[in-house]
Amino acid sequence: MLEFIDIPGFIDFNYPKLNESTMNKMKMNCRSVRRTLFSVLGVLMFTLMYANESPNWRIVNAGLGKQFAMEIAGLEINAAFEIQTTNGRILASRSIPAPSFQGLFSLEDLPEGEYVLVLKTSIQEIYQPVTLSQRTVLAATEQRWSIHLPVVEVSGRQLDILYWNAEAEPVTLSLVEVGGEKLYEETIDEIIDIEKRLNLLQVPRGEYIVEVRTANNAWREPIHLR
């Protein structure tokens, strides 16, 4: 048998009646809390997404002159590996199968100097500078950096653009016809987790290009509307 226990001090509160001004302030505070909550959830979602797509990449000096061993684990899908000059010219490339890879690479045909090893996944590019000498291939992990790539998704006539803007710099989003005419353009500033959804119900079917531009990088992703 259930009983209601009357605890003094917890029953029959007499709340004062709130005036309209106080109620409006409370509503504004609630909206602010909701905005903050959704912002935090957005950052968390992006953090988890990029964390899941960040492979464990290990480069080991093989001790055999201009050779190095490479180990990669945690790939969600196949990746691409490139050896580049410091100005971005691709010297060699190969596909890296998911979920893991081990291999030995020889740079005997390259002169001594500075190079960059690049691992490209679906949503980021990881750059590792290396120093090549006659005896060793040196890779200092503290010099490693990465670039996050935009994610473009089309579902029916709904276009989603996701981009992790780590520097909170201005980012320009555009939807362009193949002929070059811009149907949409917007610059977003001081936002880390950019999530843009466009309704394309009024856009004719056909081929289009989504552009994402920052001060230092630009990406173009073709899409097809049915």
The tally of domains stands at: 3
Order of helices and strands: HEEEEEEEEEEEEEEEE
Which word captures the global form?
elongated
Q: What structural class results from the helix and strand content?
A: mainly beta
Distance between the termini: 63 Å
Which stretches of 5+ consecutive residues score pLDDT under 50? Answer: 1-16, 32-52
- The CATH architecture designation of the largest domain is Sandwich
- Percent helix, as a range, is 10-25%
Describe the 3D structure.
The radius of gyration is 26 Å and the shape is elongated. The strands form four sheets. Strands 3, 4, 6, 7, 8 and 9 form a six-stranded antiparallel β-sheet that branches. A four-stranded antiparallel β-sheet has the order 13-12-15-16, with no helix packed on it. The chain has 226 residues and is mainly β. The protein folds into three domains: 20-52; 56-147, Immunoglobulin-like (Sandwich); 150-225, Immunoglobulin-like, CATH 2.60.40. It contains one helix and 16 strands.
